[in-house]
Design goal:
The complex is a heterodimer. By secondary structure, chain A is α+β, with helices and mostly antiparallel strands. In chain A, about 70% of the residues lie in helices and about 15% in strands. Chain B is built from 3 helices and 7 strands; from the N terminus they run E-H-H-E-E-E-E-E-E-H. The chains are: A alpha+beta, B alpha+beta.
Chain lengths: ~100, ~150
Amino acid sequence: MHARQLDALGDPTRREIFDRIRHQPRAVGELAAELPVSRPAVSQHLRVLREAGLVQAEASGTRRIYSVDPSGLDALRSWVEDMWDEAMARFAAATDEERGDR
Amino acid sequence: MSIPPVRKERTVQVPPETAFSVFTERIGEWWPLASHSLGGDEAVSAVIEPRLGGRVYERLADGTEHDWGTVLVWDPPSRLVLSWHVGRDPAQSTEVEVRFDPAGEGACRVVLEHRNWERLGEEASTTRDGYDGGWETVLGRYTDLAGS
């Protein structure tokens, strides 16, 4: 999953698109109007971002509005969970040693 | 984009004074440096300077130091708060709070909370550099640290 996210954000245009969506959910047409990129190209970039779990689409009338998919940040969060699990386990083991020393 | 804090609890069989000192003075011995540091195998120690405003950093075999954060609250033996910006711009610090609560005779409940995740993305796009220091670095650090 992470490799996919990194690949998706490895492209500067996709980073720009992701960044814009992060600040304000947008439709394909709006992004195409703001960026020097054709509408089909924007759609293609959005598809990659979506497949990477970074953005999600929601229908609004005839338009699809793209917003950030929180699962992207959740992935980071679960990595931090693992980090503290490991750190706390090792910390607890260190206090056991301290107890043994007394 | 509100992200709930990471929260960990652990009861250890030493009083808060000991738990606090092991956590802070001996972090270099127990922190999983190989898997969770900027230097990886090169990292030889981690340090929390024991005072308000103290630096939190790792030290590499060649003497290089990489900052992890700063001591925001130094209240032994009950509470410690650190800003945490490993591998990122300090402006995008998250925050780690550790509380050491007495838990009966000679025991201590250690409660850790890692929060302010929103800060990772905040205003990150106002400058290009800011953006590069945000998501990209965080995800990059992740893969570096995960060894992939």
